[in-house]
Structures are given as structure tokens and as C-alpha cells.
Design goal:
The structure is a single chain. The chain has about 300 residues and is α/β, with parallel strands linked by helices. It has a 7-stranded mixed sheet, with helices on both faces. Helix 1 packs across helix 3 and helix 3 packs across helix 10. The protein is globular, with a radius of gyration of 18 Å.
């Protein structure tokens, strides 16, 4: 995922009125950014997503390729999922923009680089990135260090979930208009949340006007995974447990679709790992394909 909108976060906060932050971005946000870059650097073209900027944001040196979680062979399925879900999301945003939707909300934005890779997006879209204050402040500083402006159409919205900040209120205070349609992405988060918390966010987004859409990812149950992906899940589950951020939210496609419909969405479509493979990885000679443990839902109002 690109960041976690949840209570369990690592790093020390010192958010001041000037926006300065002591701390580092969430570990998962960093790993996601590095996997996106690794795809561009080690996998055969054509690339599903071209994004090396995340690595520049996350690391100020060349040592990140030596990380244990960046071993190309071991991270293939996970990085394929990361770039596949990002490609799917950005295509959804482009489709929404073509219909006149001019607000894009990234829940748990982490080190997302959509705004930097699409500098012309501001002509049609206001982008709202929501994440914890320490990650947001750190990212703002890194963008400035790397020579990137923070244009008016890019709104970095810090929300302190540990202090029970209301992300919806913070979003509207940043200029979001809840009376107009929007496209919302929520990637790599629901596995850390209770069903009640996920349902509450779904209801908030479903309250937006017709023409709005949401893309989220969810974890399948262990028994539903492809045999070759079971060990990947077990290893990541243990890592999450050690970090104090255990996986607690698991769904079948039917369950997540029903949750979206109960929240008020008019339609909900499951996008499986096999669907992502057919869309973006078909015909590859390197065998790169998404991991079966994390899949997507696209819901429309």
C-alpha cells in the first residue's frame, strides 16, 4: 500500500503549526514506493507502470536495492500487485476525468507520485492526499528538496488518526467539495481494519454524488490463495505482526461486494489477480504476475 490510514503507525510525531515533522514515513509506504521503482529497473519492458520517483523520495542513496525485501526473485508477486493496482487506479482516474470528475482523493497516500508524474493533471483535477502528519510532512520536505513544487491543485491533508481526527472533516477543510463527484482510491488498507471501520469509510464515500467511484484493495483468506502464494502471505503476516500492525481484515469477493452495496454504492465490481494479469501482464516472457492474496474492488455511486 501507499500508506496506512489507521491507528497503528510507526514513527515519532512532532507536528507543529509550521508543518515541520520529526520522524519518517511509514515502513509500508516506503516499501511500496521501492517496489514500484524496482519493477521499472529489473523487470522486462513493457512496464506496467513507470515510477522511479518513489525511490528518490524514499531513499537519498543507492543502498535500497540491498534491502532483503527488494530481492527481485522473492518480491515478484508483490511488486506485480503493487504496479498492477496502481495502473488500474490511474486508468480509473483518467476515465473519471474524461467524464468531468475533477476531484481525486488518495486515502493513505504514503509516497504516491501520481501528481509528480502527471504534472498536467491540475488543469482538470484537484488531488487530495490523506495520510498521517509525520508521513505528510516528511514527504512535503522531500519533494521540496528534490525540486518539486507543491501546486495549489495538490492538497496534502494530514490526519492524525491516533488522535481520532475525522478525515472527512479534514478533507473538506482542505477544499474538497462533497457536493461534487470524486474518484477515491484506498489501496492496501482494509487488511489492517475491522469490518466495522471499513464499512464506515465505505458509507462516507458512498454518500458522494452520483458519478463518484472508489477503488480499494482487500486481502483474500489464506485458504483462497494460489498454493505458490501461501508462503508469501505467511511471511508478510508474520512481519506485520512483529511490527504491531497485524492483518485483521479478510474478505471473499462476495463479502466485500456486499459490504459496498450495504454502504450505499449502486454497483460494485471485483477485479481479481487473474483479471489484473489478463489486463496488464498477458504475453510477458518473464512470467511476472500479481500475487493472489490481494485483489481490488471498484464501486460506483
Amino acid at each position: 500500500m501507499d500508506g496506512r490510514t489507521k491507528h497503528q503507525q510507526q514513527g515519532r510525531k512532532d507536528w507543529s503549526m509550521t508543518g515541520s515533522v520529526v520522524g519518517t514515513p511509514d515502513n509500508t509506504a516506503v516499501r511500496t514506493a521501492l517496489w514500484r521503482a524496482l519493477h521499472t529497473l529489473v523487470d522486462e519492458p513493457p512496464h506496467v507502470l513507470e515510477d522511479v520517483l518513489g525511490a528518490r523520495l524514499a531513499q537519498d542513496d543507492d543502498g535500497w536495492r540491498e534491502r532483503g525485501d527488494m530481492v527481485p526473485g522473492d518480491s515478484r508477486g508483490k511488486r506485480a500487485t503493487i504496479v498492477g493496482r496502481a495502473r488500474l487506479t490511474e486508468e480509473l482516474v483518467a476515465q473519471a476525468a474524461s467524464r468531468g470528475v475533477d476531484q481525486y482523493v488518495i486515502l493513505g497516500a504514503g509516497l504516491d507520485t501520481y501528481a509528480q508524474r502527471h504534472p498536467d493533471a491540475g488543469s482538470t483535477m484537484t488531488v487530495f492526499e490523506i495520510d498521517q502528519p509525520e508521513t505528510q510532512g516528511w514527504k512535503r520536505n522531500r519533494l521540496i528538496e528534490l525540486g518539486y513544487d507543491i501546486p495549489d491543485w495538490l492538497r496534502l491533508v494530514p490526519v492524525d488518526f491516533e488522535a481520532n481526527d475525522d478525515w472527512w472533516d479534514r478533507l473538506q477543510a482542505a477544499g474538497f467539495d462533497a457536493s461534487r463527484p470524486a474518484v477515491v482510491s484506498w489501496l492496501g488498507v482494509t487488511m489492517y481494519l475491522t469490518e466495522q471501520a471499513t464499512a464506515a469509510t465505505l458509507k462516507r464515500v458512498a454518500s458522494l454524488p452520483a458519478g463518484s467511484s472508489l477503488i480499494l484493495t482487500f486481502f483474500r483468506h489464506l485458504e483462497d490463495l494460489a498454493p505458490e502464494d501461501v508462503q508469501i502471505r505467511r511471511a508478510s503476516r508474520e512481519g506485520a505482526r512483529r511490527a504491531g500492525t497485524p492483518f485483521i481484515g479478510f474478505y471473499t469477493p462476495a463479502q466485500i461486494i456486499e459490504l459496498a452495496r450495504q454502504a450505499g454504492f449502486a454497483d460494485a465490481e471485483h477485479v481479481s489477480a487473474a483479471d489484473l494479469t489478463d489486463r496488464y501482464f498477458a504475453g510477458r516472457t518473464d512470467g511476472l504476475r500479481p500475487y493472489s492474496g490481494e485483489e481490488a474492488l471498484i464501486a460506483t455511486v
